[in-house]
Amino acid sequence: MISLRQLQNRNILLGVTGGIAAYKSAELVRQLCQAGATVRVVMTEAAQQFIAPLTFQALSGNPVSTTLLDPQAEAGMGHIELARWADLVLVAPATADFIARHAAGRADDLLSAICRATAAPQLIAPAMNQQMWRNPATQENVARLQQQGVMLSGPESGSQACGEVGPGRMVEPAQLVEQVAAQFQSGLLQGVRVLITAGPTREPIDPVRFLSNRSSGKMGFAIAQAAVEAGAEVTLVAGPVALETPDHLRRIDVESGQEMAEVVVQEVAETALFIATAAVADYRPLEVAAEKIKKGSDERVLRLIRNRDILAEVAARPSPPYTVGFAAETEKLREYAQQKLVDKKVDMIAANRVGEAGTGFDADDNALILFWADGERSLQRKSKRQLARELMAEIAQQISKR
Question: Which pLDDT score, from 0 to 100, does residue 76 have?
Answer without folding.
Answer: 47
